[in-house]
Write a structure and sequence with these properties.
There is one protein chain. It contains four helices and no strands. By secondary structure, the protein is mostly helical. It has one domain. Helix 1 runs antiparallel to helix 2 and helix 1 packs across helix 4. The longest helix has 35 residues. The protein is rod-shaped and about 75 Å long.
């Protein structure tokens, strides 16, 4: 159950990292659009430093997302199969209904453990 909770938190971190990439890309796109628009007032035209900072933010967010993807993939690989665990306990194959029941029972417990393991919000 702990491995499932760790995987759930890793997936949440990946989702947040992917959102950060989307936000950084949108910010860079907005600056590029302003820079390319001949109707942008001169005081609103982004400087090269503004564009470089936005690109650096996008690059950093992309790197963070790649690291989060690696962590999420590794965490998911460490989650044991519920089918294998049930079959081992029963010493025989288990029907899908039993697996569905076990998943529903464990889902709440996994959420509780994930909440305990999640880093505190700043």
């Amino acid at each position: 159950m702990t491995q499932s909770a760790i995987a759930k938190n890793a997936q949440s971190a990946l989702d947040a990292a992917n959102q950060a990439v989307a936000d950084a890309k949108a910010a860079l796109d907005a600056l590029n659009a302003k820079a390319a628009d001949p109707n942008t007032p001169p005081e609103d035209v982004p400087t090269q430093a503004d564009l470089d900072a936005a690109q650096a933010a996008l690059d950093d967010a992309t790197q963070d997302a790649a690291a989060a993807q690696t962590a999420a993939t590794a965490a998911a690989a460490n989650v044991p199969s519920i089918d294998a665990a049930l079959a081992q306990m029963a010493n025989k194959p288990v029907d899908p209904e039993v697996t569905d029941w076990a998943n529903s029972v464990l889902a709440d417990k996994i959420d509780q453990v994930a909440a305990k393991l999640a880093p505190a919000a700043p």
